[in-house]
Design a protein that fits this description.
Shape: globular
Radius of gyration: 18 Å
Largest sheet: 6 strands, parallel
CATH architecture of the largest domain: 3-Layer(aba) Sandwich
Strand content: 15-25%
Helix content: 40-55%
Distance between the termini: 33 Å
Number of domains: 2
Structural class: alpha/beta
């Protein structure tokens, strides 16, 4: 039995969409979540900046004796998942990328839309995923630099979110899209708004299930599973009061977040 926690890293609170699925499907596993809220959003930053922040968060979680780490942020993953693994070869690191392979399998119209940050949408990594897994489909990769900040806001930003989504997707709403990929871990928290825009017939998918399956495989293969009562600890580099409120609202349960300086 291995009671060490699973580490989760995100630029902010979006990784909670991954945390929810892991904690539900692996109920005996403890989790240590780090949100780098002092530096969110990562989209708009340089690749070097993002890698530096993720590296420091990884080092923090390793010092906290995590047994594996999930980078629950698409932007962070496409910025350098292989690079992170080279920096920390002693621990399994799981990334999060848009589930294009799944979308290509389930689409009937061969028209797929990916919603992500601008960094992810423009990345070579994303273009390679589309080339590898959906070469015969029309894939519309759309990015926003505003949605993450709206989701992280203390205020009710629903109207801003609706306007940004409409602007972001206006050029593709007349396309016969039947699958929408949420390519940012923040976006499952605005799934209702995405559904209202694209309609009830569209399949909306994200990476949480695929990531959780990979985490479970690593735990089983490495024989590092736990069967005790778990603990869930949440840490932020930002304002812990603000973040506690936002996180609690997003998952509809009381979460107390601690502040930690990760320089």
């Amino acid at each position: 039995m291995d009671t060490r926690p699973i580490g989760i890293i995100d630029s902010g609170s979006g990784g909670l969409s991954i945390w929810k699925t892991i904690s539900t499907q692996l109920p005996h596993e403890s989790i240590l979540y780090v949100g780098d809220h002092a530096h969110t959003p990562y989209s708009g930053k340089t690749r070097i900046y993002i890698r530096t922040r993720v590296k420091r968060c990884l080092a923090y979680l390793i010092k906290k004796h995590c047994k594996l780490i999930v980078i629950a942020c698409n932007t962070s993953t496409v910025a350098g998942i292989d690079w992170y693994r080279k920096q920390f070869p002693m621990i399994p690191i799981v990334g999060v990328v848009p589930v294009i392979k799944t979308a290509a399998r389930i689409t009937k119209t061969q028209n797929i839309c990916i919603l992500s940050t601008k960094f992810t949408a423009k990345s070579t990594y994303m273009k390679q995923l589309i080339h590898d897994f959906a070469p015969s489909a029309s894939v519309f990769s759309l990015g926003s630099s505003k949605l993450v900040s709206y989701i992280e806001s203390l205020d009710n930003e629903t109207e801003h979110i609706k306007r940004e989504l409409t602007c972001m997707c206006s050029a593709v709403l007349d396309k016969p899209i039947d699958v929408v990929i949420l390519g940012c871990t923040h976006f499952p928290f605005i799934q209702h708004e995405v559904r209202a825009l694209f309609g009830e017939a569209v399949s909306i998918i994200d990476s949480a299930e695929a990531v959780t399956r990979q985490v479970a495989r690593i735990i089983e293969h490495n024989k590092i599973g736990s069967n005790t009562k778990p603990t869930h600890t949440f840490v932020t580099t930002g304002d812990e009061v603000h973040v506690s409120y936002v996180m609690s609202r997003l998952v509809d349960r009381h979460i107390v977040v601690e502040h930690s300086l990760i320089p």
